[in-house]
Every structure is written in structure tokens, then in C-alpha cells.
């Protein structure tokens, strides 16, 4: 059953002392609507864990479906020494967090707690700044990364085409917060 679960691709970024760090994560979910909160799991063996453990904030990005290269850049094995920030467009955002220019949407969250869970650390975040476009863009999912190799065509469209019925919006979370 676990292999059947498919989630959007999340890229988490953070920084400490002007040194950005980031990685592709497979575990992320909304945990509360009021107050808003989100939990993301960072791998213990990834360098981002060391940086995030010293930072008070994280930025969580979702990627549009066409950004496989960006996902792969942040999804490299931790032993690979390439700096993904040297190969993508980004800027400093709220609370000094690195924001990826090609993200479909993002939020910056203040870390409320950290809990070690198996080979990950679960970060509970309180969103303090959010950017999401008014229209919806089809997102990149983890299964999209497994299906595409060099020179292959993109997989067929998902059953969900990104159109949202008004009734479905009541379950979504859209909020805007100002950074103090």
C-alpha cells in the first residue's frame, strides 16, 4: 500500500550563517488548519539536517510538473557534493530563507518542534509567509520522477487535471500572513 501513495514533490530549503541548504523530501503534510501547521520529514543522513537543526525556520516549496531537473538537483544523494543552489535561480525570502524562483508555490515556516522518527526528523512548522498563485498549476509528483529517464516523454496526464470545483475549495488551505 505504501508504494501506492503519491505526494507532490516538496523541496525544503533553509540557511544558517548565509549558507543555504536544501533537499527533496518525500514526507510532508498539513497537520492543522487552525492554527495552520505543516510537518515535513528531513532525512537524518542529508546535510540539510545539520543546517536545519541550527535554523529556526524552513521554506517548503512545491514544484510545477515540468521542473524535473530542479527536483533531481535537490534529490541527489547526500554524498554528492554539488551545490544545488549554484545551479538554479533563487533569492533570499522571508526570515532569510532561500526561495526557489521556479516553485509553483511556497511557504516559510517557523519551527515549532523537531522529533526524530526512524531515519528522519519530523519538523512541525508554523507558516509565517506564503506565496501561491491565484490559478492552479499541475504539480510534480514523486511518481513523475520515477517514470522519466533521459530522452523519454513525459507520462500521460493524471486523472486529476488541476481543475478545482468550488465545493472542493473548502478543504484546501489558503492563507496570507505577514512576517513580523
Automatic annotation (TrEMBL):
Protein's UniProt keywords contain 4Fe-4S: no
Q: Which UniProt keywords apply?
A: Oxidoreductase
The record's SMART domains line, in alphabetical order, gives: Flavin_Reduct (SM00903)
Q: Residue ranges of the Flavin reductase like domain?
A: 2-148
For this protein, the record's InterPro entries field holds: Flavin_Rdtase-like_dom, NADH-dep_flavin_reductase, Split_barrel_FMN-bd
Which GO MF terms does the UniProt record name? FMN binding; riboflavin reductase (NADPH) activity
Q: Which Pfam families match?
A: Flavin_Reduct
Q: Which family does it belong to?
A: Belongs to the non-flavoprotein flavin reductase family.
The molecule here is called Oxidoreductase
